[in-house]
Each structure stands twice: as C-alpha cells, then as structure tokens.
Amino acid sequence: MHFISETLEDYVAAHSENEPALLAALNKETHQKILQPRMLSGHFQGRVLSILSKLIRPKTILEIGTYTGYAALCLAEGLVENGTLDTIDINEELFDFQRKYFDQSEWKDQIHQHLGNALEIIPTLNKKFDLVFIDADKENYINYFQMIVPLMNKGGVILSDNVLWSGKILETVKANDKSTKILLEYNQLLKDDPRVETVLLPIRDGLTVSRVL
C-alpha cells in the first residue's frame, strides 16, 4: 500500500540525499536475485535510517532482521569510531550475500553477523545499546521490545519497522491474522509504556522512533 502517491514518493526521494553507490548495487542485486525484495528498506527509508543514526552517533547498534544488509549499512553510517553493529537473522541462505556487501564497506570490521533466533542470541551479546532497529518477524515484536528495553543506554533509540503493516492496522483483523493483532498491541504498548517516548512516522510502511527515558 502506498500511503502517499507514487509521484510524491518519487519527489521526496529525489529531494533527499542520493543513494550511495554500494547501496544502489545492493538494491539492484536484491531485486534481481532475492525473494521478496519489497522487504528492502530502499533509498528513501535508508537515508532516514542513516540520518537518524548520524544524529544519535551510536557506539553500539543492534539490528534484528538483516535481510540483505541494506539497513545495516545505512545505520552503520552513524557509528562512532570503533563502534559496533550486531545484526541478527535466521535465514542462513542470505549470510554470504550480506557479507559480500559488508566487506565492501568501510564498516566491514565493525559489522558482526549472527545467525539464529534473536531471542536466544541477544542475551549472549553482553552489551548495552544506543540504537536498535527491529525489522524481523512481527509476531515477536513485543518479545523483542521487552528484552531490549533493559539493555538500552539512557537516551537510546529503538526503531521499529512495518508498524503500519500495509494499512492492515486500520482494517478488521481476521481471526487467523496474528501478525496484525500483535502489531496493534505493539503500537499501543509503545504509546503507553512509561519507559519510552514514541512518535510513529508514516514513512513507507510505518517507522516508529522510541527514545528510552
């Protein structure tokens, strides 16, 4: 679902920062070779992630849901010197694809890939985080959030993707649609949880910015 017209989306992208060449190549190869390329953050949302990270200047970033690595590279642009980005994905088939592009970037030694269940991996990282990007299975969004909040540094930011879920959050939820049900609960949780202050941005499929108090 397009929440604004495609013409206006094109104008917005054209008047935002250009897509870096490495990310343009990753974008193109993802669409050529990988299933569900719509999962890619893409040019405009990628520049939003980049500038948010640059404003935050994180020392530690956690990404839940790597896909082909586009968002990770955008977020890495804001890392301080010697900062680290841990990214977790359950899809073994994409591991080498991600690494190919990570290794071509200036953050190749700062990006650490983890393969497996994020709820099992996160406690083993033994880190506090300045910036977290949640973009994985929607049914676990609440579980990820509840695990992450105690691991955040004060003033840290949690970004949550796909929170508008193609507009399904405004429709009657089907009995078997667990993802939409969880996202409705999740969006309300972020609004009500006293540990964070939140703004939901209607960017692409919805991006929530939550600052940890």
From TrEMBL:
The keyword Lyase does not apply. Keywords: Methyltransferase, S-adenosyl-L-methionine, Transferase. CDD domains: AdoMet_MTases. Transmembrane segments: none annotated. One of its GO terms (molecular function) is O-methyltransferase activity. GO terms for biological process: methylation. It comes from the Bacteria. Pfam families: Methyltransf_3. This is O-methyltransferase.
